[in-house]
Amino acid sequence: MVNSKMYELGTHKSTIRTIFEFGRKRAAEMGEDSVFDFSLGNPNVPTPDFIRDTAIDILKNGVPSEVHGYTVAPGKPEAREAVARSINKRFGINYSGKNIFFTAGAAAAITISFKALCEEGDEFITFAPFFPEYRCFVESVGGKLVVVPARPVDWQIDFEAFESLLTPHTKAVIVNSPNNPSGAIYSEETITRLAKILSAKEKEYGHPIFIISDEPYRELDYNGFTVPYIPKYYHNTLVCYSYSKSFSLAGERIGYIVVPDEVADFGEVFGAIAGAARVLTHVNAPSLWQLVISRTAERPSDISTYVKNGKLLYDGLKAAGFTCVQPQGAFYLFPKALEEDDYAFCERAKKYGLLLVPGTDFGCPGYFRAAYCIKTETIERSLPLFQQLAEEYR
Prior knowledge:
Layout: H1 4-11, H2 15-30, E1 36-37, H3 49-61, H4 64-68, H5 77-91, E2 100-103, H6 105-117, E3 123-127, H7 133-140, E4 144-148, H8 159-165, E5 170-176, H9 188-205, E6 210-214, E7 237-242, E8 255-258, H10 266-279, H11 287-296, H12 304-320, E9 332-333, H13 342-349, E10 354-355, E11 357-358, E12 368-371, H14 376-391
Parallel strand pairs: 1-10, 3-4, 3-5, 5-6, 6-7
Antiparallel strand pairs: 2-8, 7-8, 9-12, 11-12
């Protein structure tokens, strides 16, 4: 009677959402102070005042049909030009509005890109640990997700494993840097080597291999680390961006796809993106937020809270005996669990009100994710509980 795959996806929530809902229920029963919810990557830093003020001004003084009406499919021309100028200024690129396609956040940008590129038999490669939704996104368009095993020592790419998984069926490689869940940033050396390998394989296989760069955390880099802008290293790159994290606009669903001029068959690729957006019913991204972005695209993000929270949680867990690579960006910590069964470990953590996500969901059994985009005071109060949890294993 209904599509069984869709029923399964709709009735079996993701582990992250299940844990988050458990936390809301526990908080209602026992009080907010009893819950230390590290499950969901929902930004807690307030949306910048300049975003709020810009939105209010547009709502008060804008032409209603422009603020609330449909736009052309790729987005308002002035907003696309503003984004292009911002990228050019930061990365020394030469884009214009024709290279930008507005979307309802990064998830829409990614799924549109998958749909635009995927043909029968195509494979999309990603690197563990990876955002779990990649699998259902890729499979929903008829592709196959191929996962490269993790390199836990630093969460960079295991190139030997990667090269062994490349085949003539490889259509694209998904790169997420800064990474969810590890907080790692792929270094310039890593990106350069990746580009060199893919360029050689394109020649060998006789067809383009795309990089799909999933960049909702691009502005969140710390401690002197910077995020390489991949189109500068590899021409066949589609950039999928979101303002959900940089401007704390997760609920407003505003992002974009960049299609560089250098992409093989630019017109064909951009047309396929427009077609995929049409099929997936993305008529246009929210008009109000396109207008807001057209005025604010070049404004900086405030990441000071995430820097502080990341150091606090990392130092606290290290002191409690956890093994963890220090994050370089995003707002996640990805420590090793204190037992082999990461699900059992996260279940035991619930006794202390600590809500953590098992690493198995990210392709890395034996680890767990803690999102530190929460109140600093909550992290401070959680550290003695992590210490108590660790004592159980000694």
